[in-house]
Each structure stands twice: as C-alpha cells, then as structure tokens.
Design goal:
alpha/beta; Aminopeptidase; 8-stranded mixed β-sheet; two-stranded parallel ribbon; 7 helices; histone acetyltransferase activity; chromosome partition; EC 2.3.1.259; chromatin regulator
Length: 251
Amino acid sequence: MFDIEISHCPTIIYRPIQSSDLEALSQIHASLFPIRYEREFFINVVNGHGIVSWCAVDISRPDGNVDELVGFVTTRITTVKESEIDDLIKCDTSRIDQTLVYILTLGVVEQYRNLGIATSLVQEVIKYASRIASCRAVYLHVIAYNQPAIRFYQKMMFMLARRLPKFYYINGQHYDSFLFVYYVNGGRSPCSPMEAIAAIAAYFRGQLRMLTAKLWNRDDKSSRWSKCTENQSLTQNKRIVSAENSVFQTV
Ligand SMILES: CC(C)(COP(=O)(O)OP(=O)(O)OC[C@H]1O[C@@H](n2cnc3c(N)ncnc32)[C@H](O)[C@@H]1OP(=O)(O)O)[C@@H](O)C(=O)NCCC(=O)NCCS
C-alpha cells in the first residue's frame, strides 16, 4: 500500500473522508501510531458520526490509486464545559454553549511528509472551527516524545498550554503529554481581574474533579484500566492504552 514512488511535485487534493476510505484509514492509523484504534472509531469517522474529518489524496500517483488517502485529520466538537481546558478559555457569560474542536488524530504517510500536507489539513480544521460561531479554540494532545509533531504544532502557531505528567499509559509505561491550543473567535484565555478569578476557580474545580476521579480510581482499580471506547475518552483526563495494545483515544 505504501510502497509507492511519488513524483517530485505531486498534485494533492483535499476532501472529506468517506465510506470507501475505511480500510485505508485503518491501515494508515495502524502504520503511524504505536497503538491500535477500535474498528468502531474508523466506522464513526467514515460515516461522520460525531467526527468531522478531511483527507489528502495524490491525483498524480503513478500507480493509479489516485483516490487513496495519503494524509488525514479527524476531529470532534466538544463543549468548553465538558472539556479539560475550561480554565484556558475566555469566559463569556452571554453564551453558555461555547464549544471547542478537538483534534483526535493527524497523520501523513511517510513518503508524503514535509510537503505541507499536514499544514493544509490543520488549516482546514482552523477554518472549520472559525466558522462555528460558538467555537473558541482548536486543541489537542501530543505525546511528549513526538518531536516532529511538537515542532509542527509550534510552527502552526498553536500555544503550548501545559504539560500533563503521565497522561498516557501505553503497554505498561507512562508518558507525559503536551496540550496545544489554537484560539479562534476571540477565545483567548482571560486577562481581566474578574475573568482571572473565574479562571482560577475553574482551575481548582478541575483539580478537585481530578482528585475525586483519582480517589475513585484508587477504589476501583479494575475499572481504571478497563478498555474504554473512543466516545468516552474525550472527557477523561488521561488516555490509557491496555497491555493488549487496544486503544480508544490518542493523537
Ligand atoms: C507530524 C506530521 C503529521 C507532519 O506532517 P507533514 O505533512 O510532514 O507536515 P508539513 O509538511 O505540513 O509541515 C512540516 C513541518 O512540520 C515540522 N516537521 C515535520 N516533520 C518533522 C521532522 N521529522 N522533524 C522536524 N520537524 C518536522 C517542521 O516544522 C516542518 O516545518 P517546515 O516545513 O517549515 O520545515 C507527520 O510527521 C506525521 O504524520 N507523523 C506521524 C503521526 C503523528 O505523529 N501525528 C501527530 C500526532 S499529534
């Protein structure tokens, strides 16, 4: 599938991901990420069930597979309230329905890297988020050792908001993650004294929630490590991958 020679200047076009992309999408995820995504995740992506996604294809491919994915980005919308970054978003008392776009996965097959494909895909996400009146930011997690992705998001002007110690648990090992945010529609974090106080209060509420969750997890270890589905994961503070390598959520 990926043993292809590409022309020096491939002609890349971008389109939404569709049903016919199912197999290619799951194969690329398997080849790019150290963890396995559940089938349900891919089915939701190609059917647009709660997930908005785009892909890149090379219409100048010499092998004729001109509609086969060479890059993709998958996203979903969440509310600020439900997210873990409510303290990073400007309070807007007139709107209770503020939202965020969360980047679930982003990838480009190796032969097509450094051609600006991920840049175009993420720009598409930013455009999409900016068009949603209630949307305040695009955000995502990157595992701390993924230098190319970290440099990529920095180049794209995402703000490194925080480091989350031991955020990922993959095959028996903990890894930190970085949380990157790109503000849209004036969603930048608070700066007035009142807003700062509200943000601090939100931060402590978040810490309390985490502490409660930790205590709860301590009481119920078995459920802590049990397999989750992709849908559950966005509201969780940690992404945990089981020893069998099955997964629910990461980027
Ligand atoms: C991160 C990734 C999506 C970038 O895709 P891409 O199409 O090559 O990115 P672009 O060509 O649009 O942008 C390249 C920029 O990213 C950074 N970058 C990408 N690969 C890099 C590498 N190997 N080393 C250093 N910087 C790198 C550079 O800042 C580069 O900027 P430049 O063009 O000014 O040199 C790609 O490397 C990938 O698919 N990696 C595996 C999956 C992954 O890690 N996904 C992200 C998870 S959060």
